[in-house]
Amino acid sequence: MIKLFKIVAFLEGISLLVLFSNMLVVKQMNLDLYKSLLFPVGMAHGLLFLAYIALATMFKIEQNWDFKKYFIICIASVLPFGTFYIEKRYLAEL
């Protein structure tokens, strides 16, 4: 199960970066490409975000994490490169 959480954390981080690059870079280039990418990339990121939070909650209960660790792991999902840090710092010990 930890392997699944690591995969979801990695994919969630990638999807966040793709979503940001789509909105910040492609949109500024005045291409209509960002409009066609917004829904599928946003939907994928949303589903991966929900899976990440659900798995983090399951691991909080299973591993008996304290609230501070759980809070840091959840907040990292909204920061660019945050899930990559969590994967190396917190999930490597599991």
From TrEMBL:
InterPro entries in the record: DUF3817_TM (IPR023845)
Pfam hit, one: DUF3817
Keyword Secreted among UniProt keywords: no
UniProt keyword annotations, A-Z: Cell membrane, Membrane, Transmembrane, Transmembrane helix
Start and end residues of each DUF3817 domain: 3-90
Presence of keyword Zinc-finger: no
TM ranges: 7-25, 37-58, 70-86
GO cellular component entries: plasma membrane
Membrane topology term: Multi-pass membrane protein
Subcellular location field: Cell membrane
Protein name: DUF3817 domain-containing protein
